[in-house]
Write a structure and sequence with these properties.
Low-confidence stretches: 1-22
Order of helices and strands: EEEEEEEEEEEEEEEEEEE
Number of strands: 19
CATH class of the largest domain: Mainly Beta
Distance between the termini: 31 Å
Number of helices: 0
Shape: globular
Radius of gyration: 21 Å
Strand order of the largest sheet: 1-8-5-10-3
CATH architecture of the largest domain: Sandwich
Number of domains: 2
């Protein structure tokens, strides 16, 4: 996710730009507080926050209201307190999932009364938005449910798994030393042969997706297994998210030292 550097003297878009139309009085939010709201397609909501000079993260947890896997498309723009728009997108997501966590870093060079406009471009979304001072960034439990993190170990006797319904997900976490590992995802369907569609994503210690590492599983049958190498240059806490997109399955995640 790209970073956005805020300079109070930055040029603004014209006040008549589309994002500035139809705005309502913003809701106040403090740094470290979480705003929880729901947005229908094409709707937006404004929040006002006082920001001292420093670095911040803007964090979203999002969930489709229907809890089905589909489009999640939303964005946030940074405005001045009176509603004119700064010249960049603060945060955006365009994904296919039932729930997601995203963030972007914001640097403020002078104290600033900011206005953040969140807009939903697709199906109704439930949103949790938190503005966190960068030096206070820490693990936050997932707000959208199904967020319990289960342990995972190395070796055949430490494999972890359970049952997943369609459109359901689960999390597992492990602290790994530096090195190379083989990570595998196994699905066994309930009810015999049919489609098996799922994935295993790597997340960082804060629960944000690590780009470029994902196991995709797409098979027709009763069971399927895929694996991928994971290389760590230094010790890391690794969180895995397994997602089942089709019929109910039993799954197993395995890690072997390469």
């Amino acid at each position: 996710m790209r970073r956005f550097v805020l300079a109070v003297c930055a040029l603004c878009m014209p006040a008549g730009a589309i994002w500035a139309h139809g705005s309502c009085a913003p809701t106040r939010i403090g740094v470290g507080q979480t705003a929880h709201f729901t947005l229908d397609k094409g709707r937006h909501k404004d929040y006002a926050v006082e920001l001292a000079a420093g670095k911040y993260y803007v964090v979203w947890d999002l969930k489709r209201v229907d809890e089905k896997i589909g489009a999640i498309i939303a964005k946030a723009r940074l405005l001045k307190s009176h509603g004119s728009i700064m010249n960049a997108t603060l945060l955006d997501i365009s994904d296919t999932d039932a729930a997601a966590r995203v963030r972007n870093k914001l640097r403020v060079v002078k104290p600033f009364g900011a206005r953040i406009r969140v807009r939903n471009e697709d199906q109704p979304l439930e949103v949790w938005m938190t503005i966190v001072a960068a030096e206070k960034m820490k693990w936050m439990p997932f707000a959208f449910g199904n967020g319990d993190i289960k342990p995972l170990g190395i070796g055949p006797s430490e494999r972890a798994g359970r049952y997943l319904e369609s459109n359901e997900w689960a999390y597992h976490s492990i602290k790994l030393p530096a090195g190379e590992y083989d990570v595998s995802l196994y699905f066994k369907a309930k009810g015999g042969n049919g489609t098996l569609i799922g994935s295993l994503e790597r997340l960082d210690r804060y629960g944000f997706r690590v780009p470029g590492w994902k196991i995709h599983l797409l098979e027709i049958g009763e069971e399927a297994r895929r694996e991928k190498e994971l290389t760590l240059a230094k010790p890391r806490t690794v969180i895995f998210r397994v997602l089942n997109r089709d019929r109910p399955v039993d799954y197993v995640i395995g890690i072997e030292k390469d």
